[in-house]
Amino acid sequence: MSSQPAQYTATLPRPPSLDKGAGSESATTGDEELASLDDSSETTPFSAPVPLPAYLQQTYWWAYLHPASVRIFERQWLVNLILWGNFARLRDLALDEIGPSIPGAVLQVACVYGNFTERLVERLEPTGRLDVVDVAPVQLENLKEKLNGATRIGVHHQDSTNLHFADASYDCVVVFFLLHEQPEDVRAQTIAQALRVVKPGGKVVFVDYHRPDRTNPFRYVMVPILTTLEPFAMDLWRKDIAEWLPDGGRSMTVAKETYFGGLYQKVVVTRQEQA
Ligand SMILES: C[S@@+](CC[C@H](N)C(=O)[O-])C[C@H]1O[C@@H](n2cnc3c(N)ncnc32)[C@H](O)[C@@H]1O
User: Fold this and answer.
1) Residue 28 pLDDT more than 90?
2) Helix/strand/coil (H, E, C) string of the chain?
3) CATH number, residue 31
4) Which atom of ligand 1 is the closest one to the Cα of 114?
5) Residue 215 scores a pLDDT above 80
6) Which of 44, 81, 161, 238 is disulfide-compatible with 189, CB 3.0–4.6 A?
7) What pLDDT sits at residue 6?
8) What is the pLDDT of residue 4?
């Protein structure tokens, strides 16, 4: 998937205050190096701009694009509260899946408020390397500040539906609470891209929302919250992530586990080694 569907380039009305923030920066910036902490990773050369996706501008501008969003949401206690006290557990489930220590190349698709990336970096061995992509420049700038000059980390301004990395270039790809924010067609492209860039034998680790068990009271609490604030999230209550795998999930194995009465899931997709 190498081209951007037209819908992502739509110019949408947004709060005037965004015009001085991430939105205007992104609209004019096509240079991925804008965001690089360390530009030694191999990316495909390109010069196309990276527009902000329509759903991000319409639905999530207040959470990720507004200049004040980082100031408000970049608090460990708040991200933990948003996940009903489960942030550290879910973070560590994802990180443990990558490994207790990481000798290879990892790609994190989309920044995360809280200390997810810092904890990932702590696990890198001297041979290990992390690349992080995000479509919102303000989030990449925030990540660079959090990483405070750490080495062997590439920070890239890219869209998850159009990754500029070579096929089979990562040992592991992690996608933490991104899929529920994306419309279904975008989500399918993100999943396909994550699987394209992972090596045969490598894993893509997804952690996200899931349909809670019938006996879980959060089931009733979360319906109004998600339908109001995160309209695409309910897709993950209706369908398994495996249903969006490219090629019907052939040559992949899928392992799913749920947590907190089913409200959250970890899905690990392993690309089979080539015969
Ligand atoms: C990973 S998700 C949410 C994670 C979690 N809720 C948190 O606390 O941050 C949020 C990030 O995804 C990014 N994002 C959304 N759509 C994207 C896309 N198509 N490509 C790359 N990054 C994207 C947003 O800019 C934002 O930084």
Assistant:
1) no
2) CCCCCHHHHCCCCCCHHHHHCHHHHHHHCCCHHHHCCCCCCCCCCCCCCCCCCHHHHHHCHHHHHCHHHHHHHCCHHHHHHHCCCCHHHHHHHHHHHHCCCECCEEEEECCCCCCHHHHHHHCECCCCEEEEEECCHHHHHHHHHHHCCCCCEEEEECCCCCCCCCCCCEEEEEEECCHHHCCHHHHHHHHHHHHHHEEEEEEEEEEEECCCCCCCCHHHHHHHHHHHHCCCCCHHHHCCHHHHCHHHHCCEEEEEEEECCCCEEEEEEEECCCC
3) 3.40.50.150
4) 8
5) yes
6) 161
7) 24
8) 33
